[in-house]
Amino acid sequence: MNHQKSTILIVDDEPFGRMTLEALLNTPPYRLAFAENGVEALRQAAHLTPDLILLDVMMPEMDGFEVCRRLRADPHLAEVPVIIVTALDDRDSRLQGIDAGADDLVTKPFDAVELRARVRSITRLNRYRRLLLERARFERLTELAPDGVVIVNRDGMIHLANPAFLRMVGIEDERQVFETSLHTLISSEHVGSFLGWLHHIVTDTSQVVRVETTLVRPDGRSVPVEMNMGHVIWGEHSAVQIIVRDNTERKQAEAALRESEEQLRRSRDVLRALFDGLSDGMLLLDREGGVLAINHAMSTLLGSRSELLVGQGWKELCARSGAIFPGQIALKSLQDGRSRHYREHYTSAEGHARILDMQTVPLTGSPPDQNADQVIMHVVDITERLQVESLAIQNEQFAAQGRLAATIAHEVNTPLQSIQNCLYLARKASESQRESYLTLACEEIGRISGILRQLLDLKPPQEDEEPTIVNLNQIIERVLLLTGGMLANHGVDVECCYAAHLPPTCGYADRLTQVVLNLVLNAMDAMPDGGKLWISTTTVDEKQPQVSYLPHQAAPSLPSIPSLPSIQATPAIRSNQSIQVDLRDTGCGIPGDIQSRIFDPFFTMKHDGSGIGLAISRKIVGQHGGRITVHSVPGIGSTFTVVLPVWNECSREGVLR
């Protein structure tokens, strides 16, 4: 039962009248309030919103009729029942009270039993009116609520279900759920728990229970829901209000999140396995220079284990690794947010000398600032690779020398054969004829002497040899002199166009001769059935000087040739002009899909080629501060272009060994 008291406001300017009504109505169902005049009555009514007002008519300043009219004019008090208590018993007074808006009139002296009956009847009707109004408001709210709202009794019988709940369980007609048990819509494994929750809430009305369960629709589909259950009074009886929220999307999102987390975990495990399995050293540093991650290869270089290095300071690790590790570039990249690529020599604590190729990649936040948030360092031990490439370079040099020796032998053999014939004929000839044969023999000896002088010009540089001024026109002429017979035997016609007053470059003549020789012989090999080779030199303007590779910078593909110092370009000795040498042939050409690879080490299109000649040529040209490019059309021919800087003077400064 609902034991809520009804509030009654008694308005009378006479204390006796207030005391009389108090004595009659001071019973448990009522809570009494009092006012001595009309102004106080209006104030009390606005504050209390009473269930009934007993209003005396005869009061000073503002009589009861005026108070009643003002109550009806107030929207918040217009529905409050008013009984006018008056000593006036004439017809006009009654009509005036009804016109003022009174619900009833009681004349003095009044019958106590009749007054109690009228008060009880009016307060009960007003309470029901309020309950109906509140219920209408509640039902309107539940109709608009996005979540399901259900009112059930202690046994789970449904008294109210809003449209959202009906849609949730797939029922169109609300009459199908009224006076049926909610547990028929709950999955069987949760029915017992559900009835226990209802009993607990009805027993302890202060409790609010939040549970997750599953509703089963008539079509068999399950709907995961969250229920918030609390005690309410419904029709003067205890009941349970249940707010039902559809968790389908949340469950799907949770399942998708779990799957994503599982995929992320598997990916992380795979990446970790790859990270640890890399033969290259990998390191990740945080903003303060602490080690966030380090793989097995990197920890081995430092002579420790990965798990012992994570969380340590990188600066301290480099200093105490047994031998000072050259890893300070990572800290520099943290400070300025710039990538770096150095080549460093490192001697381990065991005394093993290694050559390390080290590169840093800074990771910046958003927006990026000067400092990096993290830095990745990639370390590659290239010691063995450099040794193999050095051996390959030496083998190619030997092969080039062999080809040069064969060319020289071919050139020397012809005059030797002529000398032999002249001497044979001189022994049998007369005195006058003998002089002619000996003169021819001397001329052939001179030819051989010239060839040998050219050979002496190709001697390897000594350890203390410095770069000299080089005339590229003379280099080309020297190569053509040595290869002229071979080119003629292969049916290759050579046409040269030299720039007059070609400025010199500075470098090593033997290495530049090797470049030109490689390009000429490659052109000859590209024309097995003969053809034509054009060689030209010219001077071009260069907006940006081509600077050679400096210490610790990444070379294109090959290590520095041990016997050749590289030359560093500096503005003080470098002009903005360059020398361009073009060698164009009518050979088979190079397919477009492999043109970018022909300068890679060990890549060759020949069956008996080593694939190192063009790589060495690019290396030599790069060490001289220049560049080499190719343009080729299959079936038409190829043009190789070598560009070298014009030097105003040769300086020993900047020569690196």
- Global shape: rod-shaped
The total of beta strands comes to 24
Structural class: alpha+beta
Overall average pLDDT:
80
Instruction: State the helix count.
Output: 17
Strand order of the largest sheet: 2-1-3-4-5
Tell me the radius of gyration: 54 Å
Largest sheet: 5 strands, parallel
| Fraction of residues in H or I helices | 40-55%
Report strand %: 15-25%
Unreliable residue stretches: 544-574, 650-657
Task: Report how far apart the termini are.
Answer: 105 Å
What is the fold's blueprint, element by element?
Elements: E1 6-11, H1 15-25, E2 30-35, H2 38-48, E3 52-56, H3 64-73, E4 82-86, H4 91-100, E5 104-107, H5 112-144, E6 148-152, E7 158-161, H6 163-169, H7 191-203, E8 208-216, E9 222-234, E10 237-246, H8 248-277, E11 281-285, E12 291-294, H9 296-301, H10 306-309, H11 314-319, H12 328-336, E13 340-347, E14 353-363, E15 374-381, H13 383-428, H14 431-457, E16 468-470, H15 472-489, E17 492-497, E18 505-507, H16 509-525, E19 531-541, E20 566-567, E21 574-585, H17 613-623, E22 627-633, E23 637-647, E24 655-656
Parallel strand pairs: 1-2, 1-3, 3-4, 4-5, 17-19
Antiparallel strand pairs: 6-7, 6-10, 8-9, 9-10, 11-12, 11-15, 13-14, 14-15, 16-18, 19-21, 20-24, 21-23, 22-23
Helix pairs in contact: 2-3, 13-14, 13-15, 15-16, 16-17
Can you tell me about this structure?
The protein is an alpha+beta fold and 657 residues long. 41% of the residues lie in helices and 24% in strands. It has 17 helices and 24 strands. It has a five-stranded parallel β-sheet with strand order 2-1-3-4-5, with helices on both faces. Strands 7-6-10-9-8 form a five-stranded antiparallel β-sheet. Strands 12-11-15-14-13 form a five-stranded antiparallel β-sheet. Strand 13 and strand 14 (353-363) form a beta hairpin. Helix 13 packs across helix 15 (472-489), helix 15 runs parallel beside helix 16 (509-525) and helix 16 packs antiparallel against helix 17. The longest helix is centred in the middle third of the chain and has 46 residues, at 383-428. The two termini are 105 Å apart.
